[in-house]
Write a structure and sequence with these properties.
The chain has 460 residues and is an alpha/beta fold. The chain has one domain: TIM Barrel (Alpha-Beta Barrel). The chain is built from 15 helices and 17 strands. It is globular. Bound molecules: zinc ion. The site of zinc ion has 4 residues, from loops.
Amino acid sequence: MIINAIIVDGSGTPAEGPVDIIIKQNRIDRIARARENAKHREGADAILDASGKYVLPGFINMHAHLQDERAGLPIPYDYQYKLWLGSGITAIRDVGSDPDKAVAERRKSAKGQIAAPRMWLYMWVRGGNTEDEIRENVRMLKKKGADGLKCHQMDRRTYMIVADEAEKLGLKIAHHVGVEDATAWDDAKAGTSSIEHWYGVPDAALDGVQNFPPDFNYSNELHRCRYAGRLWREVNPKKLNDVLKALVKAGVAWDPTFSIYEASRDLQWALTQPWFKDLLHPALEKFFTPNPESHGSFFFGWTHTDEVFWKENYRIWMEAVKKFADMGGVVTTGEDAGFIYKMYGFGYLRELELHEEAGFHPLEVIQHATGNSAKVLGMDHDLGRIQAGYLADLIVVNGNPLANLRILYPKGIDPVMDLQNGDKGGIEWTIKDGITYHAPTLFAEVKELVRQARMQQATN
Ligand SMILES: [Zn+2]
């Protein structure tokens, strides 16, 4: 039982409390007014006093990748899990990893055998040469245990076949639209569950094609990322309005993953994130180092002009996401960490800040991270709210995140944040499936894990 809590529900409604949250096994049994010596407090197995603290639904990370290696070096899953749980993430939607390993991890997490978030696996579907082959690939993933599909870089014909087969099998689709002939117009037609990142949206609102320079080569990642930063400025606002309207009408959600592209607008900050000092695993560190072999590690010859374009790109992109939400579209939060200088968990907390920067009220930001994400997963009767009958996935925050989202970051990692947060700060407890995890202990364990990995790396 959690007592004396101020709660922020996942539906966008204001904070209220103090209340007591009575948990039975892995579900919230009921919410009661906090009163000392109240009958409902008698005989509780365990009482967690949340006086002065805020309780939120557990965060849902809609764009995660289970990773047990980076740049050829192993990383234990435990490293990701502890960072995720410590950052308040109690559920992930995996959008592409080793499917067999992921199925095994999902099973262990569901049985409570490991300390890890809940998992939904949207397996990466490959295309195929013939229609039969494409359909068979979708059926094969369903048999493997996919909860949904992740589509990436598909031409229109292939995507439409995949979407049709997925619908028959009841599989949802997370779509990372590629620079192909498919755009957001096709997502509106196909009934995609969510557009990942942003590709495909501005592409659907151009007059003609993007104004690429003559030497542009799409296979060159530096070219690709440099000119992606000059795409939103070429959008025709009227066409953008039409495509956003169509997406909202078709019920396609938008998972923008703002944080994963942030290095493009401020490389200096990306390289000096304060949590890298003690918590960056050497495998990630190696992967992030510019190298054409590592996806997203393209920052050779990155110029200030590139950053200026990217800052403008963000501004127009954020306006589009806000407009989409104002039209009634569902916005969710995902991190895509493990690439481009983003660490698991920290990338997610940064994502929340960027939703605020996009113009959303902190209550809406929390709603994106909880209620909205649960809805897109099809779990809105079990997750994302603090209500009787919902699963007991909760976080207890030492302070008020509505006053400063930065308060969600762990204490003692960044002197600047500690200065801002005073005696408050940090998620204190993460509760998943009724099981309680002490977030500062999880971070201390990650620190030790990293220390040992670095030592081993040095002696190899
Ligand atoms: Zn991804």
